[in-house]
Amino acid sequence: MTHAQSTLDNYIQQGIESNQSIKQQSFILEKSVYALGEAKSMFLPNITFSTTYTKADGGRTIDFPTGDLLNGVYSTLNQLTGSSSFPQLQNQSILLNPDNFYDAKFRINQPILNAELGYNRKIKSKQIDLQKTEILLYKRELVKEIKTAYYNYLKATNATKIYQSYLTLVTEGERVNKKLFENGKINRTAVIRSQNEVSKINASIIASQKTEESAQYYFNFLLNRPLTESIVIDDITTLPEESQLPNDNISNREELSKLKISRDINNDLTGLAKSYLIPKIGASLDLGSQAFDWKFNQKTRYYLFGISLEWNLFAFGKNTYRIKQSIAEQQAITSQTDYVQQELLTELKVRQANMESAIAQYRAAQSQLKTSQTYYSDMSKLYKEGIKIYIELLDAQNQWIDAQIKSNITLFDTWIAYTAIERANASFNIQ
């Protein structure tokens, strides 16, 4: 029994590791982790480099009367000094657009107070938890499918073995009846009945083998293996232990965890909507150089430091509507949580009732198996002594084989019902 469960656990691990849907969800989780890293980086300084170069001609000008202001003074100075040291100047027309001018700088921005960034980081972090829960939900559903498929395969293989064992019995019966008929000790009816019984069991074996193949294909499909790959067979002959039966607790269900995380995310969204009440404060620092004709020296270099404050004081009710939307969504999630919790609890109760019914069916089948086996043994002895006819022996054989098949079916139906309970209260420990 322990070995059987160990084999099944290994298959479950293989299925989880090879499942494509889980791999896709893992990629989405990886994306969410990167999104959180991006949200955290928003708190760090942002450094950019920019440069502009301007070549201009024409446009507005400023007229500066340099000649009118200074030429008279310069002429007087030249007369007093008897020289021409002071030349005559032309009036200047200065172009407003900078010509052959560059401005290159590094800008450093650092947020000091920004509530939006804080809420964004919280939301991204919870989205990771949400995706992890989604992956766990995929895994749990896959575990249930693998275990159910495994038990269905064992049910089919055991049924095939039972029919094959019975075929040996009825084939021997056919041989004996032919001998007895040839010796004139029985009539043709017994021979015909024994031949029909052989044909019927052969048909049952073929049907059982096809069911076995279908179960094999589906099991290997869940493990992402070649459909015809062989499956290790273990003997399961007893019911699940009573002490291992799962309890009524549904708090571990991933569906409820997802709703709880969604509620927490919505709380953060409400906080994000209210964050407009808190001003945004940031700092910036420019380190650069600007000059004409690509000059670069001590005089062209500069720095510019600044503090910025942004406060959204009025937006015509836009922020209020956002807050009301978040509150309405919160109420919807709370209502959905109550409904889902009741739904999951109902599912668990139904699964437990199915389990109790399966156990009762198995015990009844076991009792019937013992009775039919005893009946067949008695009829076999009486038939060999010539007291009973073959038809009566055949009836005992059919009751016995039917009891074996039903016992096999009810045994694995019990394990399937146990698996359903295990899924209903998320009690299986997923690695």
Automatic annotation (TrEMBL):
Its main location: membrane. Coiled coil: none annotated. SUPFAM superfamilies: Outer membrane efflux proteins (OEP) (SSF56954). Keywords: Cell outer membrane, Membrane, Transmembrane, Transmembrane beta strand, Transport. It is found in: Cell outer membrane. InterPro entries: OMP_efflux, TolC-like. Belongs to the outer membrane factor (OMF) (TC 1.B.17) family. This is TolC family protein.
